[in-house]
Amino acid sequence: MRNFKFEPNFLLNLSQAAIILGYKDYRKVETLIESGLLKAYRMPHANRLKVKYHDVMKLPKEIQPDENEK
Fold first, then answer.
1. pTM for this predicted structure
2. By CB neighbour count within 10 A (0-12 exposed, 13-18 middle, 19+ buried), where does 33 fall?
3. Is residue 44 part of a domain?
């Protein structure tokens, strides 16, 4: 698998970010945003939050879910 840095830095919705991180739903991603570990963006034409792909991939392994949190 190629390093994520070679991929475009597109915006993900919170559900997509949750899938990449291994969570069942987006609420844990909201927690990461609220705690300041992940920066969220709001597009002018939409109300939903987005996160950058590279920011999601750079999250430390320590905060990614273990088997009990999934």
1. 0.78
2. middle
3. yes
